[in-house]
Amino acid sequence: MRRAVVTSAATAAGVVLLLSLKPHEAAGPAPVIGSGAGTGSGSDVSQPSEAPAPSSSASAAGTGATRKVNGDTVNTRYGPVQVQVTLAGSRITAVDVVKYPNSERRDREINSSALPVLNQEAISAQSAAIDVVSGATYTSDGYVRSLQSALDRAKG
User: Fold this and answer.
1) How far apart are CA 27 and CA 87, in angstroms?
2) Which of 57, 115, 120, 146 could make a disulfide contact with 33, Cβ separation 3.0–4.6 Å?
3) At what angle do helices 105-125 and 137-155 cross, to 10 degrees?
4) Can you tell me whether residue 66 is helix, strand or coil?
5) What is the per-residue pLDDT across 81-93, written as a single tens digit (0 to 9) for each?
């Protein structure tokens, strides 16, 4: 009798788990996730442009110039990661993620929460010495490597 109750409970639990799975969704256009200075939540989402961004640009002369520098594209297990860092002098004011894994629904779910955390940590740390985000280890590693290459490129 006890065996029948345990078997019935296990079967019911299995059915509930199977029914809770969601079907695969078609991939939509990939948003650009950034830390855009001046946004309320610390991140913004916009459509990517087809033209590649310049590797660096300056909006004013001198050491306090605001400029954007692209990091290397780092290939991870789940796809490429590339960041663009905005600097005011040597201070990191924003980090935009221009490439990240997004071909699968799960990739988009993970990165929609992990990338804003990485952006905020990079701005707070003012360096690429930041912790990985649990559950987004490969993306975090690619992010750190791309950010470090952008900072190295900015130093000249």
Assistant:
1) 33
2) 115
3) 40
4) strand
5) 999 999 998 899 9
To the nearest 10°, the Cα dihedral for 88, 92, 97, 98?
30
Q: For residue range 28-46, what is the model confidence (pLDDT) as tens digits?
A: 444 455 554 433 333 333 3
Q: Give every CB contact of residue 97 below 8 A, 6+ residues apart in sequence.
A: 32, 33, 34, 81, 82, 83, 111, 115, 118, 119, 143
3-state secondary structure of 18: helix
Instruction: For the chain, give percent helix, strand, coil, nearest 5.
Output: 40, 25, 40
Owner of token pair 């990079």: 122
> Are residues 120 and 95 in contact, defined by beta-carbon separation less than 8 angstroms?
no
The domains found in the chain, sorted by start residue, are 29-155 (3.90.1010)
